[in-house]
Structure formats: C-alpha cells, structure tokens
Write a structure and sequence with these properties.
299 residues, mainly alpha, 11 helices
C-alpha cells in the first residue's frame, strides 16, 4: 500500500508556476487598491478588497461541492447500483491511504466526470451516465485516478481561491469604469482607466492558467496512482470525441462548474473563445504528455 508522500515524490514545476500565478493575481488586486487609495488618500480600499477576497474564497471553498453536484443534477448511488465505480475508487483510495469518497452519478449523456470536496474526508466523485457508456473499466480507472488526485492535491481550494480573487478583480474593474476611482485629482486617470479595462482580463486569464496547470498535475499524478498513463490517454481521446457528439448546454450554472470536470464539457468553438480562455489544456497535449510518460516508464 502506498501513501500520498510516495505518490508525490516527484517535483512539480507546475507547483511553482501556480504559486507565481497566484502572486500575480494578488499584485493586480493590491494595485487596484493602491490606485484607488491614491485617489482617495486612504488605504481602506486595499483592506476592503482583501477582505472581500477572503470572504468570497471561503464561501466558494465550503460550497463548491454542493454547487457542482446540484448543477449536474447528480444523485448518490450505492455499491449495488454502481459496483465498478465503487470497486475502482475503493482500490485507488486504499492505494493512496485515503478515505473512500461519496459516489454520485449524473443523468446526462454528455461524457464527463469530476471530483469535489474541501478535503479527502469530505470528497465526492461524480460520473455521468454518458462516460460510463463509452469507457472500458480500464479507461474509467484512469479517469477516476485523475479525479481523486484533484482532491488529494487540494485543487478545490486552489480553484476556489483563484476564482474568488479573479472575481473581485473583475467586479472592482467594472465599478471603476462605472463610478470612477475616487478623487481623480490625486490619481492618474489613464492608469485608472487602463487598470479598470485590463485587470479583469488579466485576472480571468491567470485564473484559467491556474486551472490548466492543475489539470496537467492531476493527469500526471492520476497516472502514477493507477500506474497506467495510457489508460487515461485513451479515455481522454474518447471523451474529446464524445463531447463533440453530446456536449453540455452552455447554461451558466454548468459554465461555473466546468473547471471541475476532466474535460471541457462544451463543444469546441461554440462560445467563440480562444484557447487562452479555456479552463482545460488542449486535449492533444494532455494525451501526448501521458504517452511520453508511458514511454519513460517502459524505457
């Protein structure tokens, strides 16, 4: 039996990247507060925005699981109803020396899966009916290993913090455009305008970059947990094709939870966004990384 320390003996360059991206987010937030403080001769805006960030982070962290499960209309299932999922998750949880999470199924034909929960003791894993129809048990094991590593790596906290800070930056930028930045005699109006326009865009891009970084980590760690990177690569290839046939509707509740899913649940190009605004890395690159990982393990 292995524990998480044994599974994570490798070093993630992505861990440093995530920390750096978070630092940039907070610099942007404090820069907005500094500009407004210069305009109002008060440091209060900085503290107000920091407190808003903490409050929204806490709310998202404690409620992300309920929100995601509700948005997918998922329901809990027993071992008699989903024996394969229980068998795989129990085996992988034991291998990582972690508690068994709750198991849910979402009644949708869109093939996907996600895990949520603020820690391993309060985790839940959800599969859609669509993913259970197109994957073999070996491929499903690869997907569930990926999802469990999101929980073990505390990615729910990471994504909650990133979303909260980026949300505050966006809200403040919109307020600056609508109401201005306080006493403009003491602040650079061009700097205020630039910050109001560019900061929300930068905040969103950085939030999504953090999400993509964590997906690469979960792919790698999940493949180590299952000792089968090619199974996850094969599953991702099927998911990519399956989602194009049966995507989720671009409902706002689903959009808000889409970063938790193993694959972007919406049809490519449906929203006109470029890859920099995607919650997930390019599927071809994820598959190529897993195949290279398998090649190294065989050499």
């Amino acid at each position: 039996m292995r524990d998480l320390k044994e599974l994570n003996v490798h070093k993630h360059h992505n861990g440093l990247k995530t920390a750096g991206l978070f630092a940039v987010l907070w610099v942007i937030l404090l820069a907005i507060g500094g500009l407004l403080g210069a305009g109002s001769r008060s440091a209060a805006p900085i503290w107000i925005f920091a407190l808003i960030g903490v409050g929204t982070t806490a709310y998202g962290y404690w409620n992300s699981g309920k929100i995601a499960i509700r948005s997918m209309q998922a329901f809990p299932v027993t071992e008699a109803q989903a024996p394969a999922i229980y068998r795989i998750v129990r085996e992988l949880s034991a291998a990582a020396n972690q508690p068994m999470p709750a198991i849910y199924i979402s009644p949708t034909q869109a093939p996907n899966a996600f895990a949520t929960g603020r820690n391993p003791a309060n985790a839940a894993v959800c599969c859609t009916e669509g993913i259970l129809q197109i994957l073999t048990e070996r491929e499903l094991r690869g997907v569930l290993g990926h999802e469990l590593m999101h929980v073990y790596n505390r990615d729910i906290l990471t994504s909650s913090v990133a979303a909260a800070v980026a949300g505050v930056i966006t809200a403040v930028g919109q307020m600056m455009l609508l109401f201005g930045g306080g006493d403009r005699r003491n602040a650079n109006p061009l700097a205020l305008l630039a910050m109001a326009i560019l900061a929300p865009i930068a905040g969103q891009v950085i939030q999504l970059a953090i999400s993509r970084t964590r997906e690469y980590d979960a792919d790698e760690d999940g493949a180590r947990l299952t000792a089968d990177p090619l199974a996850l690569a094969s599953a991702l290839r099927k998911l990519d094709a399956g989602i194009q046939r049966a995507p989720l509707p671009a409902d706002q509740r689903l959009v808000n939870s889409s970063h938790l899913m193993i694959a972007n649940p919406f049809r490519r190009g449906a929203n006109g966004r470029s890859s920099v605004f995607s919650t997930h890395p390019p599927m071809a690159e994820r598959i190529a990384r897993l195949e290279r990982m398998a090649g190294r393990s065989l050499s």
